[in-house]
Design a protein that fits this description.
This protein has seven helices and 15 strands. By secondary structure, it is α+β, with helices and mostly antiparallel strands. It has a domain of 169 residues. The protein has a nine-stranded mixed sheet with strand order 8-7-3-9-10-14-13-12-11. β1 and β2 form a beta hairpin. The radius of gyration is 20 Å and the shape is globular. It starts with 14 loop residues before the first strand and ends with a helix.
Length: 305
């Protein structure tokens, strides 16, 4: 097969737990809050009892460039499937064609819906391989499965440098024990992680967490193994992969100055506002904010549908 093909000039492969994701473009999705200090178009009360907008964004983790972000009203839902699908489809469309062959999508817990996972599966094409990790909201059924795990099933989790977090956090495969999977996508895996709860988490612990002294989190994924990534089938590596999900700022207290029909970028280091040469609003109010390596290699028709 020969040595792995190097990435295009200026576009790095993402490295997770010490292993490069050769050939994979990673799209991270998450929502953020932007506070409005006046009665602006589209502003509404937010779930944090503020007032403003609740945009849902998609970023290319390889280059930290923003791909799509509609300025939703403040009362927009965190797990609205139609919004996730809309933003994701526009984000993929903004990638130059040569970067759409192997795409890894990471979504927080708001993405654990049947419709979104079905859509993610349908994104696969003859010449496009799409894989995902999604945060999984834990229910009583999940906790029942966690309680059945023998202590020997837990192994040290991995840090982003690939070293074991000895005694600090553990990971295990939950797939074969969780009956909730019977109603979900075929081939879906559940990876559970446990950590010692901090003081701020103490009041929100479940009965199981209080009895065991551990706090639990679950990730759902359709990854069996990623080609050219050694150990990518291991629960420890999959856990580290999802934890590398880029987190946007939880709230921006400055008021946006654009119409909801134009894409807005969150004020944070990894997302830069694009200038007029590369930004073109797309149908539905989703625009493009590439000003780095992807912008340099993109074809003009990508931006002008």
């Amino acid at each position: 097969m020969g040595p792995p093909r190097p990435p295009p000039a200026g576009v790095p492969w993402l490295t997770v737990a010490g292993k490069p994701l050769i050939g994979w473009v990673v799209i991270d999705m998450d929502a953020t809050l932007i506070t409005a200090h006046s009665d602006e178009q589209g502003a509404a009360a937010t779930f944090k009892k503020g007032y403003g907008h609740h945009p849902l964004g998609a970023w290319c983790a390889n280059t930290t460039e923003s791909l799509a972000m509609p300025l939703r009203p403040g009362n927009a839902g965190s797990n609205t499937v139609s919004d996730h699908i809309r933003v994701l489809d526009d984000a993929i469309a903004q990638l130059p064609a040569s970067y759409r062959r192997k795409i890894l999508i990471r979504v927080d817990g708001a993405g654990a819906t049947h419709d979104l996972m079905t859509h993610l599966e349908r994104l696969n094409r003859t010449r496009r391989n799409v894989r995902f990790t999604v945060g999984w909201a834990i229910t009583d059924a999940d906790e029942t499965a966690i309680a059945r795990l023998p202590e020997t099933a837990w192994t040290d989790s991995l840090g982003q440098d690939g070293t074991a977090t000895t005694g600090q956090a553990h990971t295990a495969e939950l797939t074969g024990l969780d009956q909730r999977l019977d109603n979900w996508n075929t081939g879906l895996r559940l990876i559970v992680r446990r950590t010692r709860p901090s003081a701020r988490h103490a009041k929100n612990l479940t009965a199981l967490e209080r009895s065991t002294g551990w706090r639990y989190a679950i990730v759902a994924t359709d990854i069996g193994r990623l080609g050219r990534v050694a150990g990518s089938h291991q629960p420890q590596w999959l856990d580290a992969l999802h934890r590398a999900h880029a987190q946007p700022a939880t709230e921006d207290t400055r008021s946006p100055d654009a119409s909801p029909d134009v894409t807005r970028q969150p004020r944070q280091p990894q997302t830069r506002a694009a200038d007029g040469r590369v930004q073109k609003p797309r149908p539905g109010g989703v625009g493009l904010a590439l000003d780095g390596p992807l912008a340099q290699s993109a074809e003009l028709r990508t931006f002008n549908p």
